[in-house]
Every structure is written in C-alpha cells, then in structure tokens.
Design a protein that fits this description.
Layout: H1 10-37, H2 40-67, H3 71-100, H4 104-136, E1 144-146, H5 148-158, H6 160-165, E2 169-174, E3 181-183, H7 185-202, E4 208-216, E5 219-226, H8 233-236, H9 247-252, H10 260-270, E6 276-278, E7 286-293
Parallel strand pairs: 2-4
Antiparallel strand pairs: 1-3, 4-5, 5-7, 6-7
Helix pairs in contact: 1-2, 2-3, 2-4, 3-4, 5-7, 7-10
Length: 296
C-alpha cells in the first residue's frame, strides 16, 4: 500500500503541475514542427492528442484535490501518471525518429505511432470524464433505439490488431433477427468496450473470446465469454466494487485502475439491465452477461 501521508503533501501537486507544464511545452514543440514542415496532417494528428493530455492532467489534479482522503484514489492518480509517462516516452522516441530520419517509411511509422497514442489518450480522456460524471450522477441518460449487433461488431473490429498480436480466436454469434434495444447508446458502448477490453487483456495468447447476442424472454441478452485468468469464488462478489482488483488480475496487469467494471455495472443498471459474472475459478475463464429492454 502506498504511503498515505506522503501523498497528502503538496509534493504530489507539484509533480502534477510539472507534468502539465511539460505537456504544454510538448504542445508548443509539436506546433512548431507542424509549421516548419508545413504539414497540416501532422498538426491535425497531434492537436487532439495534446488536448487529451491536458484535459486528463487537469482532471487528475481536480480528482486528487477532491478525494485526497482516500488512499485508493491516491493510487488512482499514480497509475494515471504512470500511464502518461509511458505514452509520453513513446512520443519522445517518435519525435527523435522524425527529427533524425528523412526516410519516408520511418517517418510514416512515427506518425502511425502518434496516431495510436492519440487514440489511447482520447480513450483515457473519455474514461476519466465518465468516472467523474458517474461519481457525481451528473450525466442525464437519453434513451433511444440502438442496434446492439452493429456497435458490437464495430468494437470488435477496432481491436483486431490486438487480437491478432495475441493470436486470440474471436467469434461472434447472434440471432438472425434481433430487435433494437432502448438504451443510452453512448454510455452502453462504453460499458461494452470495458467488458471487451478486459477480455482481450486477461485472455492469454492463443486463447479465445466468444461474444453472443440473442433474444431471451422478451429482452436482448449480451454474453462475452473468454478463456482468460478467471475469478476465484472469494472474489466473485467484489468484482463490481470500485477500485477492486483480484490478485491474479494485478499479477497480469499491474497498471490496472480497478474501476472499469464498476462503471460498466452502473451504466448497465441505469439502462434497466443488470451486469452479471460467472467463472469456474482461477485460470478457467470468465463470462459476463446482461439483458436490456427491447425498443418498441
């Protein structure tokens, strides 16, 4: 457990301010590079990335100031800072590649790295905003018909590279005729992304993930089953608790936050569903599922 007294000092705030200052300097450097190379494409690529970094840094600082009485939330900030550092290291290497190479292939690779980092930072930005709004119950849910099959296919397609890298066999099954569900699409998509990303993260190489959607008892059911690390019986009741992470999850991914399933559970509940989980034990995979109301 991290030292609680230490992280209540102003030293942490100074670190975050220094981080924000570094990001602003990085933004200035990127803009100068874009102007010097007359590359509108590079500018358009970097601008949302830098904006995301600034938003997350400010959000992290506000989160810290509002919740510094809780050690787990202190650790949440440390984890986010570690993620920033990892991504910024990748940016620095890419800058070095752009500055030192005139080879078009190398430059294209560096820009592609920027693009990937940008996507990760945008995802982190949206996640942090969701954490804040869910915590304060500020978000007003807007329900409308949604094609669950289509959005699920899009989420799977966006993860094809990671699935290929880990040689995970992904299969998708759905009833041939399915009604739309009545949900807040923006939030529900976030919940499904959390479930799918966890399945990919905790499934070992050469494993499998099965996603299925079907109509059951007048509602639409969503299932995601994996051959991953599984869940012990003692941890089953804690899976949707804020900041909870099982020991085997911590061993698999030390940088996890432990809030994704809490958010997903709350989102699905507010969409008139209930997220549930089952597992035969550690190392034996996990299945998450929920049902949603049908749009009339």
């Amino acid at each position: 457990m991290l030292n609680k007294i230490f992280f209540r000092t102003t030293f942490v705030y100074l670190i975050l301010v220094a981080l924000l200052t570094g990001i602003i300097w990085l933004a200035h450097t990127f803009n100068m590079m874009a102007l010097e190379t007359h590359s509108n494409g590079l500018y358009e690529l970097v601008f949302p990335f830098v904006s995301s970094l600034i938003i997350i840094s400010i959000g992290a600082l506000l989160w810290k100031r509002a919740h510094d009485a809780d050690t787990l939330k202190d650790e949440f900030i440390i984890i986010l800072t570690h993620k920033f550092r990892t991504l910024l290291t990748g940016v620095r290497w890419s800058i070095d590649d752009l500055a030192s190479s005139s080879n078009e292939t190398d430059r294209a690779t560096a820009i592609e790295t920027f693009r990937g980092i940008n996507m990760e930072m945008v995802s982190l930005t949206e996640f942090l905003i969701n954490v804040a709004s869910q915590d304060k119950h500020q978000y007003v849910y807007q329900f409308a018909p949604l094609d669950l099959v289509t959005v699920t296919k899009e989420i799977i397609a966006a993860s094809q590279r990671r699935l290929k890298d880990k040689r995970i066999n992904i299969s998708f099954e759905n009833d041939p005729v399915l009604p739309k569900v009545l949900v807040d699409g923006k939030r529900l998509i976030l919940a499904i992304q959390v479930l799918f990303e966890n399945a990919v993260k905790y499934t070992p190489e050469d494993g499998f993930i099965v996603v299925s959607i079907k109509k059951e008892r007048g509602r639409v059911s969503f299932y995601i089953k994996d051959s991953g690390i599984g869940i012990s019986k003692s941890d089953m009741s804690k899976m949707f608790s804020r900041f909870f992470r099982s020991k085997n999850a911590q061993a698999k991914d030390s940088d996890g936050v432990g809030i994704g399933l809490f958010i997903a559970h709350d989102i699905i509940r507010r969409n008139k569903g209930q997220l549930q989980v089952t597992s035969s034990g550690e190392g034996r995979g996990t299945t998450f599922w929920f049902t949603l109301p049908v749009a009339e």
